[in-house]
Model the fold of this input.
Amino acid sequence: MKQRILYYDIIRTLACLMVIMMHSPYAIPKETTPYESVPVVVANFLGACSYLTTPCVPLFFMLSGALLLPCRVDRPVFTYVNKCLKRLICPIFLFTAVSLYFGLDLDMVNRPLWYRIISIPFSYQGHGILWFLYVLVGLYLLVPIISPWLRQTSKQSIELYLLLWCVSLFYPYLARYVWLETSTDGILYYFSGYIGYFLLGYYLREYDISLKVMIPLAIACIPLPMLNKVCGWNYDFYKAFWYLSAPVATMSVTIFLIIKKIFIGRTLSGLAEKFVNLISNYSLGIYLTHVFIMRLIVWNLPFVVNISNYIVQTFVIFCLTLLMTTLFCWILSKLPFSQYVIGYKSNTPFFSKRK
Done:
């Protein structure tokens, strides 16, 4: 059994909390309530809630890279692929089916069912949160390919790759001043995307970046979306301040390094240890189930609906969703085959034989 690494568990726990918080605010229908008519406080809260929790996805990808890269030399490729992918494939199919059943597949709601089913290997079907697992499958498939390079390459070679990847994170800003080719014809096309975070996780596991540099940069990134509005820069939020953007990458790296710096070689005790272990163990299940529990149950609870303060309501939704999702995953983890549903199986099932 592999020894637990505390700072990995804390990063995973924080990323889980961030993703729940990101999805907690009630959606404001654009067709009935134009965004311009939303109170300023609510609009700013929504923007901050989205932007400040966006590092959740980069943290998940970096953690995967830190855990998986490089794969073992003595493990055949197909053995590796079978072991890693079966943990994802079953949940993908299961939660795709659940999403289709409950009508949560808003992106392709007008497409016939047969079309969505045969599209499953090529793009996510069902609820939008499943996109993350599809990208993760693609990254898992790359592990046996890039692992030999990582075993024999130098720190400087990895930094060169990451530097070229970082250039792609500035594309939304550079596009105003230069003609950028972002298609497959682009010179940095193969240095862009989530593979950068995956490799970055390995790099941050092995090496450090000065927090004296990263913390001021991360703090400087926090007000950028607000300045984008106030100063009239008019950058597209989902290009300039989303997962594959320089500000979010900066904040994500800083969070990773701070947690590593504080908790490496340390232990937790008491309730803190139990909470972190619990959320970390159920992280995949929490990611997959939180939206269903939130939107089908929590959002429809009368006392939640009747909370007049939007910010308070959001935090209540967050707390209830975290509690109910964790309890649901705890129950599932004790049932047979739970590892194929939420990626984790408890060592103390409900129906264990008593001595």
Observations:
- Residues 77-102 form the longest helix (26 residues).
- The mean pLDDT is 89.
